[in-house]
Amino acid sequence: MREIEVEIILASPADIPALCHLLSELFSQEAEFQPDYEAQSRGLTRIITDPNIGHIFVVRRDSQIVGMVNLLYTVSTALGERVAWLEDMVVSSDVRGLGVGSRLLEHAVEFARQNGCRRLSLLTDADNLQAQHFYQRQGFRASEMLPMRLVF
């Protein structure tokens, strides 16, 4: 596999338009979500400006953002410790297959570990076998828990 040179850093408010573009690419593939620039921008702003909520990492190739991932935090009463949700992992289609996603995920996992998280959870669409295989190769395993939602 050919790898490309990239930089992985924390997102800033100036990155929000590019992140909304990546989220539009992601949400257009997902069953439960639709692209909504205003909602995405609001959510990204809340995360970027409050590290107690989470962190967003971006992948830069030259001056372009080509990937992103969110870590969102909570506390598990079962573990009595901080845990994280990995959300919105997306790599631009023009750099997929070049190791960018693996490096981004490794960075997020290591950051979560170093910042006291004892568990990292994520969701994928049930029919997105490619994503499920990607995460399994990185050590994630299917949970016996069934995700359920109540939308207001």
Spell the H/E element sequence.
Answer: EHHEEEHEH
| Level-1 CATH class name | Alpha Beta
CATH architecture assignment = 3-Layer(aba) Sandwich
Mean pLDDT, all residues: 93
CATH topology: Aminopeptidase
Strand content: 25-35%
Can you tell me about this structure?
- The protein is of the alpha+beta class and 152 residues long.
- It has one domain (7-137): 3-Layer(aba) Sandwich (Aminopeptidase).
- The protein is 32% helix and 25% strand.
- The protein is built from 4 helices and 5 strands; from the N terminus they run βααβββαβα.
- It has helices at 16-27, 37-49, 100-114, 129-137, and strands at residues 7-10, 54-61, 64-76, 81-91, 120-121.
- The chain has a 5-stranded mixed β-sheet with strand order 1-2-3-4-5, with helices on both faces.
- Helix 3 (100-114) links the parallel strand 4 and strand 5.
- The radius of gyration is 15 Å and the shape is globular.
- The chain starts with 6 loop residues before the first strand and ends in a 15-residue tail after the last helix.
- The model has no long low-confidence stretch (mean pLDDT 93).
